[in-house]
Write a structure and sequence with these properties.
Blueprint (H helix, E strand, L loop, with lengths): L2 H7 L6 H12 L2 E2 L1 H8 L8 H13 L3 E6 L3 E6 L6 E5 L5 E4 L2 H13 L9 E5 L2 H4 L8
Parallel strand pairs: 4-6
Antiparallel strand pairs: 1-3, 2-3, 4-5
The protein binds zinc ion (ZN).
Length: 142
């Protein structure tokens, strides 16, 4: 993941807190704002815990991070996995296959742009029959 490209695609300037948080989360599955602040405060003297909180909240708001509450007080953040482009759902057994397809994503972006939209989240759902169900004769849902 390129933190700079990721931020640019959300029209955010690559400020040092944003880039650092994204890069740290790429290396560690989850982090708390406090941990980031403690690890980092000795390098950047004007860094405040408030800035770290604000940056986490902001990255969360635009969908790059996910917030997980641990108990009542603590929150851990993870990088939000790139949204799968689409999911296929079997109409018979309900099994789900998620997949990412850059051609579809690119096309979705193009359509959105044409309509003046900035996509934040989109997901296609394809209904059908999975291979297992297709191989069971006479069980087609019609
Ligand atoms: Zn099935």
């Amino acid at each position: 993941m390129d933190a700079y490209a990721l931020l640019a695609s959300h029209h955010l300037r690559p400020t040092s807190p944003r880039v650092r948080i994204l890069q740290m989360l790429e290396q560690e599955a989850h982090l708390s704002p406090e941990a980031v602040y403690h690890r980092w405060a000795h390098e950047e003297r004007d860094l405040s815990l408030a800035t770290v909180y604000r940056t986490f909240a902001e990255l969360c708001r635009i969908g790059l991070l996910e917030r997980h509450l641990i108990g009542r007080q603590r929150a851990l953040y993870t990088l939000r996995q790139a949204d799968p482009t689409a999911l296929m759902r079997c109409r018979q057994c309900g099994s789900i296959v998620e997949f990412t397809d850059s051609a579809i994503s690119t096309q979705q972006q193009a359509v959105a742009q044409r309509h003046g939209y900035q996509l934040q989240h989109c997901r296609l759902t394809l209904d059908g029959l999975c291979q297992v169900c297709r191989n069971q004769p006479g069980k087609s849902p019609g």
